[in-house]
Amino acid sequence: VHQSKLDFFCKLGYGKQDICKVLENLGQEALEDDVLKELIRMGSKPQALESQAQPSPLKLVARGSCSASLGSKWLGEDESDSSDHLRPIVIDGSNVAMSHGNKEVFSCWGIQLAVDWFRERGHTYIKVFVPLWRKEPSRQDSPIADQHILEELEKQSILVYTPSRKVKGKRVVCYDDRYIVKVAYEKDGVIVSNDHYRDLQNENPEWKWFIEQRLLMYSFVSNRFMPPDDPLGRHGPTLNNFLSKQPVLPEPKWQPCPYGKKCTYGNKCKFYHPERSHQAQLSVADELRAKIKAPLSLGKEEEQRHHSP
After folding, report:
1. Phi, psi of 219 (to 5 degrees)
2. Where are the zinc fingers (C3H1-type) (predicted)?
3. Collapsed DSSP state (helix, strand, coil) of residue 171
4. Whole-angstrom Cα distance, residue 211 to residue 204?
5. Which of 5, 30, 222, 245 has its CA 20 to 30 A from that of 112?
6. pTM of the model
7. In angstroms, rounded to a whole number, what is the distance separating the alpha carbons of residues 58 and 230?
8. CA-CA distances (angstroms) from residue 240 to 109, 118, 121, 221?
C-alpha cells in the first residue's frame, strides 16, 4: 500500500520526502484525498509547477546551432554581410577627402558626406581607409579640415587607419590602396574612388576584373555626394543594380513595327508584332516553303491510301 501511494503521488510530481512525511503523520491507510490535502497544506508543489515558476537558466548552445546569430551580436560581428541585399562599401578615404577639398585640403567632411549617403540607402557594412599619419595635426604642406570627424568615424567602427611609422625621421607609409582593393574583393563589395588602381590591376588579373566591374566613381556638387546613375556606362547596369547583390532586370519594352502586317522581314524583324505573339516568327521564304510542303504531304498520304490493300 505504501509503495502504490508513493508511486501515485510521484507521478503527480511531488517529492518522495514530502510524501513519506505525510504518510507517517496520517498513517499508511489514509485516503488519497487526505494525503493530497496535507501535501497542499505543507506547501509542497509538483516539480512541473516549480519549473514554470522559476526562470529558465541560460543554456550553452553548441557551435553552429540556430542561436549562433545571438552569439555574433554579443561579439559585435556584422550580421549584415550575408543577410543584407546590398553590397558592402569600401571607401578610399584619401581620394574622397582630397576631392572634396579641391585637391588642396584633406576635407574630412567629404568622407562624412559619402558615409551618410550610403547609410541613407540602407548599407550597413561601410569601411573607410585612411593612412595613420592623418592623425597628426594639420601642417602647411598637408592641411586637414574637420579632423574630429575621423575620431567619430573610428569610434563607430567605420574608419580604419592603415599602418605607418617613422624610421630615422622619415615616414614609412603602407600602401593603403592595397588594403582597399583587398577588403573589397574579399567582401565582394564596391570600391568608392576616382582612382583607377592601374598598378594593382597589373599585379593580379582577378583584381583587374574586379576593379573594372566594381569601381564606383563620384562627384561633389555643392557639398553633395553624387555617384553616377550608370556606373559602367550607358549600356551597363543602373546604380541600384550596381549596389545590389541581386539586381532586378527591367522588363523589355518592345517598339511596335512601323510596317504592321505589311512587314516582310519575318523573324528577322527587330520590332514587335502583336499579330505574331502566338505564332512562330518565320521569314517570308520559310512561310512559303511551309505552305508548299503542306499540300504535297497531303497528296502523298492520299496515294498511300489508294495503294494500300
Report:
1. -145, 155
2. 251-276
3. strand
4. 11
5. 245
6. 0.55
7. 51
8. 25, 12, 10, 20
